[in-house]
Amino acid sequence: MAEETQKPEAAAAPAPTEEVVVEKESEQEDAPEKPADAVVEDKPAEAVEEEPKVEAKDTKVTEAASFKEETNIAGELPDPQKKALDELKQLIQEALNKHEFTPPPAKDKDKPAPEEKKEEDQPATSAAETEVKVETEAPAPVEVKEEEKADPPVEAPAPVEVREEEKADPPIEAPAPETVVETEVVEKVSAADDDGAKTVEAIEESVVAVATPPPAEKPEEEASSSLKPEVVAQSEEKPEEAEVPRPPPQEVSIWGIPLLADERSDVILLKFLRARDFKVKDAFTMIKNTVIWRKEFGVDGLLDEELGNELEKVVFMHGFDKEGHPVCYNVYGEFQNKELYQNTFADEEKRSKFLRWRIQFLEKSIRKLDFSPNGISTIVQVNDLKNSPGPGKRELRQATNQALHLLQDNYPEFVAKQVFINVPWWYLAFNMMISPFLTQRTKSKFVCASPAKSSDILFRYIAPEQVPVQYGGLSRDGEQEFTVADAATEVTIKPATKHSVEFPVTEKSTVVWEVRVVGWDVNYGAEFVPTAEDGYTVIVSKTRKVGPADETVISNSFKTGEPGKIVLTIDNQTTKKKKLVYRSKAKPYSE
Question: CB–CB of 143/191 below 8 Å?
Answer without folding.
Answer: no
